[in-house]
Amino acid sequence: MHASTVRSLLVRGMLAGLIAGLLAFAVAYVVGEPPVNGAIAVEEAQAAQEAHAAPGAHAGHGGTAAAEAAEEEEEAVSRPVQSTFGLATGVLVYGVALGGIAALAFSFALGRIGRFSPRATAALTAAAAFTTVYLVPFLKYPATPPAVGNPDTIGKRTTLFFLMILLSVLLALAAVIAGRRLAPRLGNWNATLVAAAGFVVVTGVAFALLPANDDAVKAGFPAALLWEFRLASLAVQAVLWAVFGVVFGALAQKVLAVRTSTADAPAPVGAPVPG
Amino acid sequence: MAEAVVSATVPAPSVAVPAPLPVRAVLPWAFFVGLLALIALYFVGAEQGATSLIAGSDVHEWVHDGRHLLGFPCH
Fold this sequence. Notes:
A: 7 helices; B: mainly alpha; membrane (chain B); CbtB_put (chain B)
């Protein structure tokens, strides 16, 4: 019985993730693609300049490595495909995968994090996922548009980024557990404040101790374009998680209402009491 | 009369806090789905970037824009 409830929640989580992914894709296409294209234009302009600067450079033979790489990149998958089907694949797989994980996190959180309805629990789960999986890592290692990163440091940057996700998820989990332990002594409100403050402080210390990401942005890259891109990235993720929280909350509320009414329904209030 | 009795018993809305689902029921799903989801996320977020299981750069190029906009380090 419980297993089938978890199964229903998982299916709805992936469905909500798919719907959220579709809306996030729309935002990514409309708001995100212009700065991506802008960054690629900057990259190509720089590569062309470098090719010109190199004396005796022939097209296709003596061009710089950057220019050759840019050319190869365009040949593998064309820009129109990258910005539509490619973008959709990435965002939808991300939405479904994290929708499934979030549904299972919800199944653990339900009834364990305080007196919250399924809908409220779903909203809190989505907010926590957005914060730990995207926002906190983004604050330390922000998203960069094409042409900004140094390919030589991709290994280090990827490791640090995933480490930051893992760290913020674990810290949030610890904060929730600490908050629940403190609740009987401090009351729910103050326990939540203490736990949240603890999360912020420890995250700040982690930010200070982890290596900086100073090699990611090349000198001369337009600052306004970088800001536009990062804002777009934030919008994509914010929309993804907001839609997920609302849609999954509505679906979960239904699943669990059916469960309570068929299985654990309390005796009707007006029922005659023997004796 | 019968209808009145029914409507009188219905009101208590299910605002009640739901009972926790037993960890035993969630854990197998969490483990298996978590594993599959992480593999899917790896291909969207990191394959043919820092590490490469499949030769070439087709996976990287296909999910290129999504990888950048979702916040993953790309290149």
